[in-house]
Amino acid sequence: AFNNITASSDGSVFTATTPNTTSFSVAIFSSEIAANSSSPFFYEYHHTAKDLKISTAGVKEVDATTVYGAARVTTVFTVYAFLAAIGDHHWLDPITLYIPELARLVTNSSIKSVNWQDVRLIDLASNMAGIVSDDTLGNPPIPSNLASSLPTLDHSVSGASIHSRQGLIDWLVKQQPIFLPSRTPIYSDAAFQVLAFAVESFTGESFDRVLDKYIFNTLDMSSSTLREPNGQINRIHGESTAILAAEHMYSNIADLSKAGRAILNSTLLSQVSTNRWLKPISQTSNSADDVGAPFVINRATLDGTNASALTLGYTQFGTQGLYSSYFGLAPDWGIGFTILSKDTEAAADLNAHVDLVSVYLLPALEREAMEQAGRNYGGIYTTGNMVLHIEVDGLSGLSLSQWTDDSNDLRAAYAESNEISPSSMDLRLYPTDLREKIPNGIRRAFRAVAQNIDAPIDAGTPTCTTWSTSVNRFVWNGVALDEFVFNITPDGVAMKLEVPAFDVVLEKI
Fold this sequence. Notes:
By secondary structure, the protein is α+β, with helices and mostly antiparallel strands. It is 25% helix and 25% strand. Strand 15 and strand 16 (441-452) form a beta hairpin. It is globular, with a radius of gyration of 26 Å.
């Protein structure tokens, strides 16, 4: 599929591309690590532009080790380093606790000056601080017929000297707020540098050192650096003047795949911290996009309808100079991708490349995930008296299609207990992320959720109140009737199923 966009650039199917000037590398990785593979990804693709092959500096052919500028993907690692070094229990700390200089300007006007005591660390990490961006990004020139009516330009509020800690702080305290903190998302690369200053204040180490210590060295990201690498042979040359903690990182697809897998597997953070991190914080004007810290979270359904399963993609992307980058995670599927590029004329638009990943590859991965779930969990479990039939049918979760105890139809009884007609009940098991190790594998807890498929429709979406009415509704001897625990072997196959409320353990047949 990628061969198509490197051969044709007319934009008739996807966004127009520039294969003659844009070199790029793509990797798709999984949270699972194949026993016979040392590669951090299971798919890679590289395209070397004609212009790069005749360039005088840097590589002549791109591959998995080629170092690019990571542009705005840098912000993911700024937040990741914060979480690894400090922890999310400090998210609600005011920034003035770490940078008291920001509180030195006292004003009676909340319109003219930022009240920095109200800016929390989580606001900075999620673009919710309501503050300006670094103006080295470049403001468009003001037309002369408009400038002629403006007062004399005050150069003291420009960003000419903001490439030092004190210079940036001095500049920020002179800037007006854009929004009240936590009101609405507005991107600010300065916010991530301020967050990096907070990390330095907390740890007593430079942010470069923190990033190396807690992320790059720990995950063996040996080709990654916050600053432009000196003497790095296998990279594409390009200049960057970006703020360090926002857009200045350099990396390759191999290192970014290692980091993506670490996030998906909670390698550096606890599972609870990862769950808390990978959550929306605010909405945008686009109903399909939310904002995280610092992710842009794409909301989509598997078949494009409101009635199908919802999945969230956690992405970050942007450009810096001639570099473009895209990084994405799909935790529900345990996969992610990264795309890095460098153009010889102008930063490339990577939307066509991302569209190829989503249109061609993700559906195939979803089919494979369902087939794998069927192999690992699907089947008949029995004790002799009790019988359960678990199926994977293309919808989310595991379908509990049969549940009997001798002649007693427990599935029908459970439906009636939930005031649902047995023929109208969809009963599914969903993972809870609660698990524990056992001698020959793990125990993994699921909860059964009963849905009335004949419930009235609200605005085209099946009414869903199960999160507030269905779970943990019936309890016997202190144990919920909807709790099911699979015993899973080291290779991921469920061989036993516990139904704790009934005090039984069923064997897969």
